[in-house]
Amino acid sequence: xxxxxxxxxxxxxxxxxxxxxxxxxxxxxxxxxxxxxxxxxxxxxxxxxxxxxxxxxxxxxxxxxxxxxxxxxxxxxxxxxxxxxxxxxxxxxx
Length: 94
Prior knowledge:
flat; about 10% strand; single chain
């Protein structure tokens, strides 16, 4: 069954899905803005040979980046230890 638009129904019809997506994106943007503004405290990070003072939000972003990088690297090590080979497409003839 195909749905067809009537001749008069152009871009002036109400699109609830579009509005829900826009409201959701606006809510996420406002939440992110509030999250950043609430985490602007300065913190001191002690490394082995030096000390750095950074904003808390940047320290959190850095730790998330380290976590993602570590997860990707560990998954590669796990795959290599199991002996999984990269999958080939069924179209390739070998």
